[in-house]
Each structure stands twice: as structure tokens, then as C-alpha cells.
């Protein structure tokens, strides 16, 4: 995915207000052992890009003053009640340096799992994204979580997720958070017994 930006000299809140009035979003690009660069980006194309899931978890090609640099989206500040982007941060990416990134989880085959089919269980998605570390070339835009074998007694933890090659969980103090929980509604087991007759 691509972002077009231009570097800007003027900084500060009054310069940012002028940019926004002109339909631009102030931002910054940092990292890569280079001085941070203040940038301006057209608001409307950026707004539409931000509505695409992959924009938040993919390596982006930023065209900056005629040169292409690879960046990651790191932070977005929105207007409190208007659909306006107020400020945006990007981080430069170096091919040989591992990055830590949150990527979305896509849950599949939940409806055919034993927990749902046999026990009419309610499957709860505790989190919808997970933090990983990898080299930029290995960054997945999402991670698929296959729930086809999910049982009623089961809780799926972060360590249970099958990760793509070159990708590892970003561990914080050895924690292993729950990703999916299963709840069997009262009376559901009785219904299962009746169905089995």
C-alpha cells in the first residue's frame, strides 16, 4: 500500500491548523537512524486508507519528496467527534531489523467447531489483535485462528496460535493471554441430549 507525503518546514500548532484548513494532515516519520521528518499528507486519501485493515498492519511504501521509503503506521490521532485525522506517525523500516507490531486476528471455522455444533456454546473473542515480532519481509497483514477443533472445555491462549514462518509472539514477562473463551448457556447440554435421541 502506498502513501504520498511531502516534507514540511513549518511546525507548531498554528502551522498544523493551517495545514488542516488546506485539507492536509500533519505527521512525522521517525526511526532508521535518521532525524525525524515532519510531513504533510492529503487528508481524504489518507482517511480512506485508514478504513482498510491492512493499512494498519502492513509495510507501507511512502513516497516522500520523490523518494520511496518503507514505513509502518504507528499512531493516529482523530478529532474527538468529527471524522477528521488530526495527526499521524510513521516509523521507517530497515530490512534487517526486527519489528514489533500488532496484527489483527481472523477467526475461522467457529460455526463448525464441536463447541458450537454439539453444545450450542457461545464463543467469545477476548482480543482481536496480537503483538508479534518479525523481520519486515515476514510481516503478515493478519493471522488466521482456526477454531474448527474448539471444544467446550477449551480456552485458546496466545501460545496456541499457529504463527507464520519467521514470526514470534512479543512476550511480555512470560504472559500467555487468553484469545478465545467458550461459554455453554444454561440448558444447552440438555438440548444436546435431546438432539442425540
Question: Could you name the key traits of this structure?
Answer:
4 helices, 13 strands, 4-stranded mixed beta sheet, alpha+beta, disordered C terminus, RNA Polymerase Alpha Subunit, Chain A, domain 2, single chain, elongated
Please provide a written account of the structure:
The chain has 197 residues and is an alpha+beta fold. The protein has two domains: 2-92, Ribosomal Protein L25, Chain P; 99-183, Beta Complex (RNA Polymerase Alpha Subunit, Chain A, domain 2). The protein has four helices and 13 strands. The strands form three sheets. A six-stranded mixed beta barrel has the order 1-3-2-6-5-4. Strand 4 and strand 5 form a beta hairpin. The radius of gyration is 22 Å and the shape is elongated.
Low-confidence stretches: 190-197
- CATH-defined fold name of the largest domain: Ribosomal Protein L25, Chain P
The major β-sheet equals:
6 strands, mixed, barrel
Provide a count of the helices.
4
Determine and state the CATH class of the largest domain.
Mainly Beta
Record the strand order, biggest sheet: 1-3-2-6-5-4
Rounded to the nearest angstrom, the distance between the terminal CA atoms is: 55 Å
Count of distinct structural domains: 2
The tally of beta strands, per DSSP, is 13
* Mean pLDDT level: 87
Strand content: 35-45%
State the CATH superfamily name of the largest domain.
Answer: Ribosomal Protein L25, Chain P
Which class best fits the helix and strand makeup?
alpha+beta
**What is the approximate shape?**
elongated
Q: Determine Rg (CA atoms, Å).
A: 22 Å
Considering DSSP H and I runs of 4 or more, what fraction of the residues is helical? 10-25%
The CATH level-2 architecture of the largest domain is identified as: Beta Barrel
SSE string: EHEEHEEEEHEEEEEEH
Amino acid at each position: 500500500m502506498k502513501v504520498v507525503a511531502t516534507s514540511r518546514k513549518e511546525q507548531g500548532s498554528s502551522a498544523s491548523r493551517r495545514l488542516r484548513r488546506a485539507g492536509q494532515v500533519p505527521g512525522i516519520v521517525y526511526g532508521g537512524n535518521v532525524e525525524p521528518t515532519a510531513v504533510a499528507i492529503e487528508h481524504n486519501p489518507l482517511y480512506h486508507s485508514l478504513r482498510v485493515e491492512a493499512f494498519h498492519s502492513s509495510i507501507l511504501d511512502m513516497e516522500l519528496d520523490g523518494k520511496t521509503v518503507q514505513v509502518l503506521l504507528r499512531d493516529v490521532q482523530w478529532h474527538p467527534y468529527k471524522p477528521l485525522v488530526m495527526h499521524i506517525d510513521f516509523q521507517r523500516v530497515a530490512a534487517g531489523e526486527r519489528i514489533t507490531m500488532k496484527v489483527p486476528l481472523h477467526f475461522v471455522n467457529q460455526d463448525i467447531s464441536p463447541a458450537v455444533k454439539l453444545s450450542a456454546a457461545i464463543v467469545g473473542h477476548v482480543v482481536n489483535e496480537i503483538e508479534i515480532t518479525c523481520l519486515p519481509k515476514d510481516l503478515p497483514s493478519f493471522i488466521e485462528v482456526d477454531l474448527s477443533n474448539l471444544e467446550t472445555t477449551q480456552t485458546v491462549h496466545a501460545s496456541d496460535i499457529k504463527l507464520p514462518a519467521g514470526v514470534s509472539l512479543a512476550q511480555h514477562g512470560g504472559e500467555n493471554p487468553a484469545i478465545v473463551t467458550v461459554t455453554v448457556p444454561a440448558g444447552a447440554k440438555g438440548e444436546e441430549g435431546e438432539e442425540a435421541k
